[in-house]
Amino acid sequence: MTFTSLASSSRGNAYVVSDGETTLLLECGLSFRELQKRLGYGVADITACLVSHEHQDHAKAAAQMLKAGVPVYMSEGTAAAHKDAMDAAHLIRAGEVLRFGHLTVVPFRTYHNVEEPLGFLIEDGRTKERLLWAVDTANLGVTADRLTYIAVECNYEESLLNRSDRIPSVLKERIRHSHFEVSDVIKWLHKQDLSGVLTIWLLHLSAGNSRAEAWQRRFEREFPGITIRICPE
How far is CA 212 from CA 8, 106, 116, in A? Predict the structure, then answer.
């Protein structure tokens, strides 16, 4: 199984998971033209697109993907906010088992300021590799065993957010209740069985309230032996 980040920021999100035969696009939060470009104009090679929630930086090209013949999967809560996709999208819910070739996907609940956001647990039936993926979530209640890869939101650092004079207090509170803070991510990771985890990807870093290089070093100290990757914008 391979995991590739095409975009990971508030300006747009798109990630690719593939087993060499089946290719899943997680999020389509760029313009359709930009997605085509970053996919090497291989939209026809996408087996399905899975959307976590309704915000434009995650679902911008949903309608265009459907028009291009790519099946799009999202929760009913997400589809309700995308009237142009509601009738054609495949509606899914937490706990449902989805199968795409040899890849199995189980959506799970995440915590964001929208209706029915989802993360995804993806398993390769042949290699038994397992990826847990979650973005735009204030915390995670899910635990999973036998993980090989983790791709998780790590948005902001409380000390940076707290002293920022560019962000109104109301917006600061919204960020705290809808995004994963770095120390909370570390606490959550320590609750997981990491014995088989090879790589942890950190997603969706805030442009002004994160410290990529410092976080890289911090995670490497916290989780020795595991490769840490910070996904670029």
Answer: 13, 30, 30
Q: How distant is the alpha carbon of residue 22 from its chain centre?
A: 18
Q: Please write the tens of the pLDDT for every residue from 148-171.
A: 999 999 999 999 999 998 899 999
CA distance linking residue 200 with residue 202, whole number of Å? 7
DSSP-derived secondary structure letter, 44: G
135 CB-contact burial (10 Å; exposed 0-12 / middle 13-18 / buried 19+): buried
Q: How far apart are CA 19 and CA 129, in angstroms?
A: 10
Q: Bin 41: left if φ > 0, else alpha if -120 < ψ < 50, else beta.
A: left
Q: Per-residue pLDDT tens for 60-101? A: 999 999 999 999 999 999 999 877 666 799 999 999 999 999
Q: Which of 143, 72, 151 is nearest to 108 (CA)?
A: 143
d(CA 216, CA 222): 10
Closest CA to 184 of 158, 218, 151: 158
The interaxial angle of helices 182-190 and 212-222, nearest 10 deg, is 20
pTM summary value: 0.96
Residue 168 region, left (φ>0) first, then alpha (ψ -120 to 50), else beta?
beta
What residues are paired with 17 via a beta bridge? 3, 24
> Residues 6 or more apart from 165 whose CB is under 8 A from it?
none
One-letter amino acid of 66? L
* 225 vs 89: CA distance, rounded Å: 40
